[in-house]
């Protein structure tokens, strides 16, 4: 018994059996992948062989010009809701992965064929090796408005990264299989999914199952993804990790995103768009206390790592709460249609905390936000760990919170007319909406509870009802201690009942709000 601590192309010769076969879980299953991961953990780590340098040096435009021929999609002839489009290595995807198909006849290697792609030039096509291998794959579903009648809703490519979207989303933030030593001076490790097994679905199946083998310098892993698509993309994930070397910081169910600037930060000089971000906050649910906590994101001037402890983490995620075009004014990037992602643990993960890593960035190209769960107990060589969870990707409602949400955060100078006229202070404005406050009249007894952590001082706070937008606004005047960040917590009450999530915010010492060079 397993001991653990809880916490494309189809070649013509293959088309017939791929079309006629029915999926069978009897010949190959998750336990087989677990056994492979356990065995590999006992071997010396061998980094994946990189693809030729010229492929790694392709520009974004050149790489996107390598297009998979949709008529060769896996399972196209079966009538399945799910089809698979294959991807070439290159650019960010620096090594090939092994792909297998599992059906009633067994496990079959999916052979590589460079002719399943079109290329931007004959020279590039000629230089691509015949045995290059695939860089990853996309899962697609029927969409009458999409090119070729299908739309990609999930992508597995690059290290252990995967991305998904719900209905009416554009791709934005990413998830990963695991994070190792993120934000540490020793440097982050990036284990990779090196092999996948795609389980052929029945024609009418609404769930697709795939397995993945993870390999890295400090650990190996076996993963099972049960994937279904509705208004949100829903993945039930099972992971089994085998530790090769001691790990200082293990990041479970990591999410990676981008925050350049938003309504709560200074706008960089020369930027005309109101906001630029894939996500605007971290949401966490403590099942022990019942608290829902919201932390708006920052683009700090220096690396910033925050930890949020909970007696029992019921869920966490990176959310994109701004969903109107007017919030961004960028029709090309579709930031208003970027998805939110919510991780809900299954079983007992043990004691731990949610980590939020925010890195400085001077553009919108870099992913500078990472969130994950970290166990309190040390992760030691020889351990076997198990973490199961559900990941939902879609609208901001994927968390299932029933509390009023902090939908807007604004921060300004508190030492000016209309701001408070207090030297060294900040005026912070937070708008709450929805949940129990949705139909509450403007004269209801709604009050704010605001706390400054450390030696910070809350000078005043009051609540206003904004009838035109049906929001409740908390206005705060607060001042940090000398040379200290200002850390605040605020929530709303109706009578004696807490009706909102807890808004948690920290203004760093080094910022652009009270003057100085904008980013």
Please provide a written account of the structure.
The structure is a single chain. The N terminus is likely disordered. The protein has 519 residues and is mainly β. The strands form 5 sheets. The protein has a 15-stranded mixed β-sheet that branches. Strands 2, 6, 7, 8, 9, 10, 15, 20, 23 and 24 form a 10-stranded antiparallel β-sheet that branches. The chain contains 6 helices and 33 strands. The chain folds into 2 domains: 388 residues, Beta-galactosidase, Chain A, domain 5, CATH 2.70.98; 103 residues, Immunoglobulins (Immunoglobulin-like, Sandwich), CATH 2.60.40.10. The N and C termini lie far apart (55 Å). The longest helix is centred in the N-terminal third of the chain and has 12 residues. The chain is globular and about 70 Å long. One of its GO terms (molecular function) is catalytic activity. Its main location: periplasm. Belongs to the OpgD/OpgG family.
CATH uppermost class of the largest domain: Mainly Beta
Q: Which bin fits the share of residues in helices?
A: under 10%
Rg over CA atoms, rounded to whole Å, is 24 Å
Q: What would the average pLDDT be, to the nearest integer?
A: 92
Number of domains: 2
Taking the sheet with the most strands, its summary is: 15 strands, mixed
Extended strand count: 33
Distance between the termini: 55 Å
Task: Pick out the low-confidence regions.
Answer: 1-25
CATH fold topology of the largest domain: Beta-galactosidase, Chain A, domain 5
- Class by SSE composition: mainly beta
The assigned CATH architecture of the largest domain is Distorted Sandwich
**Outline:** globular
Oligomer: single chain
Counting DSSP H or I runs of 4 or more residues, the number of helices is: 6
How much of the residues is beta strand, in percent? 35-45%
């Amino acid at each position: 018994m397993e001991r653990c601590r809880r916490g494309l192309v189809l070649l013509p010769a293959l088309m017939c059996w791929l079309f006629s076969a029915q999926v069978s879980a009897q010949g190959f299953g998750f336990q087989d992948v677990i056994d492979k991961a356990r065995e590999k953990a006992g071997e010396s780590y061998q980094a994946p062989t990189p693809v030729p340098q010229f492929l790694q040096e392709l520009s974004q435009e050149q790489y996107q010009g390598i297009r998979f021929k949709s008529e060769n999609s896996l399972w196209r002839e079966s009538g399945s809701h799910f089809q698979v489009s294959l991807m070439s290595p290159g650019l960010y995807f620096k090594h090939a992965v092994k792909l297998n198909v599992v059906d009633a006849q067994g496990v079959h290697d999916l052979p590589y064929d460079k002719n399943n792609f079109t290329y931007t030039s004959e020279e590039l096509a000629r230089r691509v090796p015949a045995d290059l291998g695939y860089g990853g794959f996309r899962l697609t579903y029927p969409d009458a408005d999409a090119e070729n009648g299908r739309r990609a809703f999930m992508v597995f490519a690059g290290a252990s990264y995967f991305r998904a979207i719900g209905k009416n989303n554009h791709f934005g933030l990413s998830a990963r299989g695991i994070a190792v030593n993120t934000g540490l001076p020793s440097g982050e490790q990036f284990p990779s999914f090196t092999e996948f097994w795609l389980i052929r679905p029945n024609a009418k199946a609404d769930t697709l199952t795939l397995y993945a083998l993870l390999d890295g310098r400090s650990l190996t892993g076996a993963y099972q993804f049960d994937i279904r698509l509705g208004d949100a993309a829903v993945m039930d994930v099972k992971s089994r990790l085998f530790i090769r070397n001691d790990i200082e910081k293990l990041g479970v169910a990591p999410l990676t995103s981008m925050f350049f600037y938003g309504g709560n930060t200074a706008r960089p000089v020369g930027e005309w768009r109101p906001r630029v971000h894939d996500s605007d906050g971290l949401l966490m649910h403590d099942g022990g206390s019942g608290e829902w906590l919201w932390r708006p994101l920052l683009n700090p001037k220096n690396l910033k790592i925050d930890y949020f402890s909970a007696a029992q983490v019921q869920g966490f995620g990176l959310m994109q709460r701004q969903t109107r075009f007017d919030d961004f004014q960028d029709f090309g990037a579709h930031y208003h249609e970027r998805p939110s992602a919510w991780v809900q643990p299954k079983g007992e993960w043990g004691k731990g905390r949610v980590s939020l890593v925010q890195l400085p960035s001077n553009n919108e190209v870099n992913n500078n936000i990472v969130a994950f769960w970290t166990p309190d107990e040390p992760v030691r060589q020889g351990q076997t760990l198990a973490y199961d969870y559900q990941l939902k990707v879609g609208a901001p409602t994927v968390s299932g919170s029933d509390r009023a949400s902090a939908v807007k955060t604004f921060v300004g100078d508190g030492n000016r007319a209309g701001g408070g006229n207090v030297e060294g202070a900040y005026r912070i404005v937070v708008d709450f909406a929805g949940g129990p406050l949705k139909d509450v009249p403007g004269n209801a007894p709604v009050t704010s509870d605001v706390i400054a952590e450390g030696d910070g001082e809350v000078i005043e706070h009051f609540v206003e009802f904004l009838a035109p937008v049906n929001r409740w606004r908390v206005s705060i005047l607060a001042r940090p201690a000398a040379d200290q960040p200002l850390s605040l917590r605020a929530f709303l009450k109706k009578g004696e009942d807490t009706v909102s999530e807890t808004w948690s915010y920290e203004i760093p010492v080094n910022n652009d709000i009270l003057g100085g060079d904008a980013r």
